[in-house]
Amino acid sequence: MKVVLIKTPKFLSVLLRVLFKIDKVQEEN
Questions:
Q1: Alpha helix ranges (H) inside the chain
Q2: What is the predicted pLDDT for the residue at 5?
């Protein structure tokens, strides 16, 4: 569990970054 908790923030940050990029692209189109 500790390993998962440590790795989760990085995973979430990457997911948020990707989602943010997708949202930006959709807004521009």
A1: 2-28
A2: 63
